[in-house]
Design a protein that fits this description.
This protein has 468 residues and is an alpha/beta fold. It folds into four domains: 4-135, 3-Layer(aba) Sandwich (Rossmann fold), CATH 3.40.50; 149-312, Rossmann fold (3-Layer(aba) Sandwich), CATH 3.40.50.300; 316-400, Orthogonal Bundle (Helicase, Ruva Protein, domain 3); 404-462, Homeodomain-like (Arc Repressor Mutant, subunit A). The chain is 49% helix and 13% strand. It has 20 helices and 14 strands. The protein has helices at residues 12-24, 35-45, 63-71, 89-98, 112-136, 149-162, 178-187, 209-214, 231-234, 250-262, 289-294, 300-303, 323-337, 350-354, 361-374, 381-400, 404-415, 419-437, 442-449, 453-462; strands spanning 4-8, 28-32, 49-53, 79-84, 102-105, 168-171, 196-200, 239-243, 264-266, 274-276, 280-285, 310-312, 341-343, 378-380. The chain has a five-stranded parallel sheet, sandwiched between helices. The protein starts with a strand and ends in a 6-residue tail after the last helix.
Length: 468
Amino acid sequence: MKGKIILLEDVERIAQYYKKMLEQEGYEVRIALNSTDFFQIYEQFEPDLILLDIVLKNSELNGTEVFRQLQSKQDFQAKVIVLSSEATKTEVVEAMKLGAVNFNEKGENFNRIKFLADISQALSLKNREAEIHDLKKQSIDSVLYGKHPTMLKLKDEIGKFARSNMNLLITGETGTGKGLVAELLHQNSPRKNMPFKSIDIKSVPRSLLESELFGHKKGAFTGANYDKKGYFEAANKGTLFIDEISNMSLEDQAKLLKVIDEKKIPIIGSGGVTKEIDTRIISATNRDLREMIGKGEFRKDLYFRFANCNIHLPPLRKRASDIPYLMEEFLIDYSREFNKSLDIDLKEIETRLESYSFPGNVRELKNFCRFTAEFHNKIDNHILLQEFEEHIQHNHRLSEGSGEAQRETYNRLLENNNLYGSIQNFEKMFIEHHLRKNHGRIGKTAESIGLDRTTLYKKMKKYDIEKL
């Protein structure tokens, strides 16, 4: 079997034509005639590739809306090829911006050779990405950079706890790499060949969390148009990473505690039916759970299900000697990715580099390196220090604009009795913020906020925003 494909096509005759053709080529194919059928099949089938018709006349959602909903899933990894003979150019462009790897016309302009070649290329791309993903995680040392004593201790802890089957808690500030450590623990564990799934509690609406974790049956609640497999079941025999567990309500904490103790999940809308699971839980938080327990915000009994296995990630300022080493690694990677020239000797400027606290930790450092590599053809110590100083000043300006000033802006927006006027005020501030963030670069700003350059220029003119 060469790959698993779902075809979303509302004309059954056309769908069957594609299905027969693809099965003759060795693919496993499922057909969905509308968006409701599609999501039900998607949850059970876990495709490698989705062939997505944009214009769906007898469907709750059109193809673009289906794609957006797929993109919101944290475990979405399938490649997408857009199909249509009726979609407008704007609709096709929008789908490509969402991440479709190609577009194929249907009807009289259909090209069978191109169609099959595009499918082969898309599946090859997915396989290459999976191989690279696995290669990067073959060893802890090849992924977790750093030579500071705290990092050497951390690597030892990861090796030790990876061999355990106990649930585990990772603590540390935002940007220290908690998600990366969770994946390393899984990849170096006996469960490494089983699923690793990740859910960020703060990004899931409170009303949907139970469904996301445990799954539901079709008709369980308004909008439950298909059976849904929850994260626990999807990670069965493997590992579930629960990020920002401190954002979980006390009620949901109690449900999680029960699942941990009984090793069974309740399926919403099943009439009380439960399903046995064997899922290791790795949770993470940037807050002090013991302090939350004292305030009555976190359950002590749930905390002690994780307390014996606890990994703390140090902030970058506590291992400043690693900053030049990390920067060099990231700049080498990004200079290769963007095909840029690199001529640096960080020992000459290491004192200056180590003097900045990097409040955003490794994530901030990595983003700085990417930005520098992307916007300079040649990177040397002079360019690096120039960008470094500008980065620090930019962050200082952002800090100075926080606190009371932010509250005043917030109140001003809410107190405006004209909804349209308030929206325009916000849009202006939003554009100005991202222009500053991208150092006045129009193209980069437009890309980062999802606009084309022309539209951004028009909005800047509308709101009398000057170039920085």
